[in-house]
Amino acid sequence: MTRKRLALLAVALAVVLAPGAEAYLKLGTSVNGDVLGIRWTTFPVRYFIFDGDDDRVSADELRAAVARAFTTWTESPSARISTTFGGFTTAEPFDDDQVSVIGFQARPEMERTLGAATFEIDTSNGQLVAADIFFNSTFDWSVAPSGESGRFDLESVAVHEIGHLLGLGHSALGETELNSSGGRTILGKRAVMFPIAYPRGSIEDRTIEADDIAGLGEVYASSATTRGFGAIRGRVTLGGEGLFGAHVVALNIQTGALVAGFSLTDRGDFVISGLEPGLYVVRVEPLDDADADSFFDEDTDVEIDFRPGYFPRLVGVPPGGAGEAIVITVAAK
User: Fold this and answer.
1) With CB atoms 3.0 to 4.6 Å apart as the test, which of 131, 139, 198, 225 could cross-link to 165 if both were Cys?
2) Smallest Cα–Cα separation from 27: which of 99, 103, 112, 117?
């Protein structure tokens, strides 16, 4: 078996995204000229905790926070997955050892990266062999039940990184503004998998949202977990041509749930799946609240020079399928 190590950082996507027009950005790898979504095929996923303490967080406290974060995902109604704690280890994250290790590492040169996930992948079939997560111990961390002022919440960041470990890319359901340091200040978000964390003291990312749940269901779809969900499919066009990389958002008018995706072909095709049956408002917007390379490979040309737009009617989502395809036309800025 040939293995390949890939890395995903909080601020830069270092793996190719699985192709197609699905709703959620799944992580993928090239296999014999094709790009396949990476996923676990054997459960429970077994992980180990690096037995090295942070200044304020012990290895046992890390284990407990990580266990809670895994439970957040395994209790999702959209997929049947399971994990198990294998024990403590002296092996550090990011060793090519076919073992999934989670732990602290001091990486002061990564001054904007709270944590990162890497993968060992069987290049013959794209299946995950192991995945590691590190938390950057140069930041101040907390495991306090209600959070702690001036410190990042470890459980919240663990939920995000475990989403990557399970095969999810980044969601774009967030609003930001540029700050004086050249970075972005988050104003709000509706997905744990948005690439920018809440500020110190917040514990809001301990809970996954509708977009995260839909993404997990898409990676681990089965007839049992998707039977009651529907989808919206269609195209985004600009000047009569398909628009690649448009952010498409579906809002359930009854529940307020938001699930989003991207147009991922040159024709501007998209499919937003994992939707509860009902009526939806569908909005299209440019990807301008985070760096494009947090979502797509850095060589991908993503169009952002257009005005947000809406499909002019409510879109009905039936259970177990999709209604008639829609076309959303946007205008250039």
Assistant:
1) 131
2) 117
